[in-house]
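quick one, 79 residues, struct below
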Amino acid sequence: MLVVGRRDTILFAKGYGRLTWSPSSAVPDPDSTLWDLASMTKVIATTSALMLLVERGRVSLDSPVVRYLPNSTAPARVR
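---
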């Protein structure tokens, strides 16, 4: 789904792909398809927060996970 807008006006809206894995499934309709954004919110919020911390020098992307999460059970290759 792609929606482009400006302030309170939608300039362009179009559905792409399929609603399921089936090739005969319907294409998403911008006017009637509802989306669960919870999963996207997690990724967007976490990434934005992490990048702010990186920008402020509070987190290094090259540091092992255990530096920030000492009780981490991450595999050794990630530590």
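Residues 2 and 27 are 12 Å apart (CA to CA).
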